[in-house]
Amino acid sequence: RISIGSQLLTHSGTFALDASDILRNEVSIFVPEGMQYVASKRGKKYYPVLSRAGEKLSPKNRVYFRTSALAETAGYFANE
After folding, report:
1. Average pLDDT, stretch 60-77?
2. pTM, to two decimals
3. In 3-state terms, what secondary structure has residue 64?
4. Which one, 8, 42, 50, 80, has least CB within 10 Å?
């Protein structure tokens, strides 16, 4: 009989294990100096660079702006 945490290895030798405690996907994203806002090329809203919503944007679709006025001039709307 073998157990891993609360999981018991079955007689067939298979088991299921929640790996969320040991596996983590971390992505480092370079933000150009002076950029305060970010938007997605595929969206209509802009966000502060360090906001949760801003951090979730796909790196390949990111567009950066120094000011909210520049983001709005480019056709984006504030996330409210």
Report:
1. 98
2. 0.67
3. strand
4. 80
